[in-house]
Structure formats: structure tokens, C-alpha cells
């Protein structure tokens, strides 16, 4: 996500909000705030301020989560979906520039290993332990 902050999206929104819109798009409708905070690597209070900006800009709305009064889900509005689509196109071009000569199977293996590492780091941070001995 740090690379995202270097790209010239120029959509009139902050980098922090751009990252949240991008993540919400990738997770699909009704992604929970907690998930976005973890994925963005920010605390809940910071996310609330970013979501306030997103609602004010007409990019997203917060929705109640059925059977969980404490949780909120995020849904992108059409304007937010358009922003996300433009950002994904920019990122696709960047990925090609950076990784165009790397075999697809190498990228898939690296992605799988990095996701596993990320999952274990998050589990460790949340629970103070890993499933591995």
C-alpha cells in the first residue's frame, strides 16, 4: 500500500482515503470496518476519521451489520466504485512496469508466501501467538 501513496491518482481525495476506497472495493460490498483497519494497518479511531471524509465526499456509506450492533460495514457508492476502478487501472500499469518480466508462477508463489506471512503476523498481533510451534 505504500506504493499507492506515490502514484498520481489526482482524484481530489487523500492518500489515506484512496487506500480505504481501494481496499473496500477489493473486499466487496459490506466489508467490516475492523477488516479495513487491519488491512490498512491503522487504528480504529483513524479509520473513523477517514470514513467520515469518505461519506462527506459521497464515496461510501456505513451500514449496520445484522446481528452485531457494535460493528459497521462499508459499502462503496457509485462515485467510490469509479475512483477504485481508476486506481486499479493505474496500479495494473505499475504492476506491469515493475513485474512484467517476472514469470507468473513466481509472482503467484511470492504472493502466496507473503499472504501467509501477513496472516501469521496479524494473528500474532491479535492473539500474541501463532499456530506454528
TrEMBL record:
- GO terms under biological process: response to stress
Q: Which SUPFAM superfamilies match?
A: Winged helix' DNA-binding domain
Q: Name one GO molecular function term.
A: DNA-binding transcription factor activity
TM region(s), chain numbering: none
InterPro entries found in the cross-reference section: HTH_MarR-typ, MarR/SlyA-like, WH-like_DNA-bd_sf, WH_DNA-bd_sf
Domain HTH marR-type residue range list: 1-119
Quote the protein name from its UniProt record.
Answer: Transcriptional regulator, MarR family
Q: Which organism encodes this protein?
A: Cycloclasticus zancles 78-ME
Amino acid at each position: 500500500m505504500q506504493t499507492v501513496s506515490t502514484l498520481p491518482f489526482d482524484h481530489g481525495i487523500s492518500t489515506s482515503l484512496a487506500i480505504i476506497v481501494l481496499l473496500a472495493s477489493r473486499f466487496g460490498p459490506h466489508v467490516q470496518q475492523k477488516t479495513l483497519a487491519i488491512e490498512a494497518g491503522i487504528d480504529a479511531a483513524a479509520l473513523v476519521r477517514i470514513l467520515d471524509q469518505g461519506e462527506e465526499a459521497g464515496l461510501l456509506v456505513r451500514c449496520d451489520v445484522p446481528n452485531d450492533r457494535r460493528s459497521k460495514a462499508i459499502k462503496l457508492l457509485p462515485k467510490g466504485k469509479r475512483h477504485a476502478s481508476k486506481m486499479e487501472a493505474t496500479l495494473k500499469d505499475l504492476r506491469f512496469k515493475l513485474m512484467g518480466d517476472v514469470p507468473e508462477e513466481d509472482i503467484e508463489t511470492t504472493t502466496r508466501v507473503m499472504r501467509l506471512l501477513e496472516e501469521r503476523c496479524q494473528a500474532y498481533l491479535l492473539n500474541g501467538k501463532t499456530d506454528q510451534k
